Amino acid sequence: MARNIETVKPRRALLMGALSTVGDVEVLHQVTRRLRDLGVPFEVAPFSKRRTEMFDEWVDVSTLDPRDYSHVVFVCGPLTRKMMEKRWETLRHFEHCAFIGVNLTMVADLEAFNPFDALIERDSNRVTRPDLSFLQEEPRVPVLGLCLVDSQREYGSRQRHAKAKDLLEGLIRRSGAACIEIDTVLAPNRLQHVDNGFYNAAQFESAVARVDVLLTTRLHGTVLALKNGVPVISIDAVLGGDKVSRQTREIGWEEVFEADSVTDEELDRALERCLSPDARERARACVGRARNSLANFDADFSSAMSVLPDPALRSGLMPRQGLVRKIRSLLTKAR
């Protein structure tokens, strides 16, 4: 592992890496835990300055004084000579430090490239170890589904979809829960990809049944979640309320709000209720009420299939002639 037997008393460590994935951060936690055990202070400086915004304690390496550090620890990910050369203008200021590699994939053979004074690699041409994230224990948090409709032109100026989206995304951030985006929109055909959507109803219902709570602006998001016993927080994104509000009133589900009037505090309390032990029972009760209300559907539909047509009911449906169409019509007649 180490290239020589000389040792240096650690003074301060600088932890670096891409640190762009969940796995990277879990491995980082294992390294920082051990440094704390050893009583070694440290800073974390991701390769990308933009990444410093992920966590308050991460820093921009350009703001540090290299003289304060005795060790530079490279954490997680693949590493090549080219990647080191790309960052050498920064790294050369730390050349006096001991360089340590932890949980790295060394792409080239170590005989060709190994810049580390000590290397505990994940894999190289000499050894393969299990990824360090196996050692990290993370708490479990609720899993929320997010099912949104971007706009509905039929509602014109009554649309409040952007506001509803902001409200639900704010709720997710405040909650600390995990979120999975799903949608009721189906792919136009089985060969076409659709973002966050599905190819059939069974796929959607199987996915929504696995979340703890669904957040949605869709009527069918609301209905299909409740159908599977999943509590829902619905925001009616139409000014004054429309089909989502009417549907939830009919089946007795109370966690529905209007975008223009609901507050963050009300949504926070709604999420608490939806995560409570009795929430799924309340959702299942809605299913019973809905099915009881629909008990006469077969008879109603059979009756509907026996009516006689009345074309007069559709007499006013001819589209109004637009200006362009009028001009084209006049030109055609002039010819």
Could you characterize what this model shows?
InterPro entries: Polysacch_pyruvyl_Trfase. This is Polysaccharide pyruvyl transferase domain-containing protein. Residues 186-236 form the Polysaccharide pyruvyl transferase domain. The protein has 11 helices and 10 strands. It is α/β, with parallel strands linked by helices. It has 2 domains: 13-135, 3-Layer(aba) Sandwich (Rossmann fold); 143-288, Rossmann fold, CATH 3.40.50.2000. The strands form 2 sheets. Strands 2-1-3-4-5 form a 5-stranded parallel beta sheet. Helix 7 (243-251) links the parallel strand 9 and strand 10 (256-258). It starts with 12 loop residues before the first strand and ends with a helix. 27% of the residues are buried.
Number of domains: 2
Number of helices: 11
Uncertain residue ranges: none
**What average pLDDT do the residues reach?**
90
Tell me the distance between the termini.
90 Å
Instruction: Give a short account of the largest sheet.
Output: 5 strands, parallel
CATH superfamily placement of the largest domain? Glycogen Phosphorylase B
Helix content: 25-40%
CATH domain class of the largest domain: Alpha Beta
What is the H/E order?
EHEEHHEEEHEHEHEHEHHHH
Task: Kindly report the CATH topology of the largest domain.
Answer: Rossmann fold
Number of strands: 10
User: What is the CATH architecture annotation of the largest domain?
Assistant: 3-Layer(aba) Sandwich
Strand content: 15-25%
Strand line-up of the largest beta sheet = 2-1-3-4-5
Radius of gyration: 30 Å
Shape by Cα distribution: elongated
Q: What structural category arises from helix and sheet content?
A: alpha/beta
